[in-house]
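INFO batch 0412 | record 1 of 1 | parsing
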Amino acid sequence: MNTFRYLLIVITAITGLSVAAQQTPAPSQKGAITITGATAHIGNGNTIENATIIFENGILTAVGTSGISAKGTIINATGKHVYPGFIAPAKSLGLIEVNAVRASNDQDEIGDMIPHIRSIIAYNAESKVVESMRPNGVLIGQITPQGGTISGSSSIVQFDAWNWEDAAIKTDDGIHLHWPSTFRRGRWWAGESRGYQPNKNYTKQTQKITTYLKSSKAFGTGEDQAANESLKAMQGLFDGSKKLYVYADGEKEIIDAITLSKQAGIDQIVLIGAYQGYKIIPFLKQHDIPVLVQQTHALPKSADDHYDLPYKLPKLLVEGGLLVGLQNSSMSNFQTRNLPFYAGQLVSQGMDKETALQLISGNTAKILGLDKYGTLELGKSATLFISEGDALDMMGNNLSRAFIDGRDISLETHQTELWKRYMGKYNQK
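INFO prediction complete | emitting tokens
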């Protein structure tokens, strides 16, 4: 008992955990709510000035300007901006709290081919990290396991819930495949140069994946076979009920991954990363591959790359006619709150602001198969927020209200509590 008490004290000290781990989830919407006077950023490339937005029972029932009569509670948002809730794909939010505390890390299971590992059942709805997404407008996420070649099945959740059952929007939406690289960093601890060198095992590694995909398809056509949870979890890829999310950056890796997956009978493929995707846009268009491109706030991966390639990469893909969303799967979870600023940075590269917004709202919703989220359109979920200014700008991203499925959620977090505490301390006279 003393040992347990000691460990609890240590973990509490490290993580800053308190008895009230998160804000109490908001209750269901009771009456109609009307937002008036704001600039509505629809999330499909359009805006509406001086908009009137009405939602009832968590559903948008009116979005427009003239001829709309206010109903229920009226929120005067004159001079402010309304956005659909931003969507963060391919993140392990809620699966890991503190990297240094092993007991709070549930993002990676043992094994290399483990599609049957379901991230949703490990999702911690009381995570302080998840909670901290909301004040920046990130209200929905694709919770994704990490590790291995096939890391498991992701699920899509909203960020205001008592538990994973309440949080779930779409469970087991896809399988995540990390394609091997043709090059690898030198292992300095083994006496190798730190630079890139050819991956001599690339062919062997890709053959292993191909064999597994073929075995999975064959399993689905067989009869009277012993239960195999791993192969069973793969069946949704072949009947179209699940998407295959492929992580690949190099030109060759992308082509190999898509070609071999298509040959295995998988049609619903989403490319994640796509660092060299701009070189093979015709190939991606030919196979109708949407892209969740890497974050813009990054350095070039090669000395031969343009210094600003990471910054302009999404724009290159969009101009090429691809369906593009933004993600930062390779970054720590807390940095997911920067998602709107990746989109904002694209504006400095010449992208239209409403087009940039689509990369974290409407486009991402399409890529993930979310029919009721991502845009402010009639009949869709009232998952939205009101910002004092431009939500894609750090100076303007200042939320006053936010709603998930029409529920008026709290924007208080551990960070805002600390801010108020110390602002009070240092503003004393």
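INFO post-check: The longest strand covers residues 168-178.
INFO record closed
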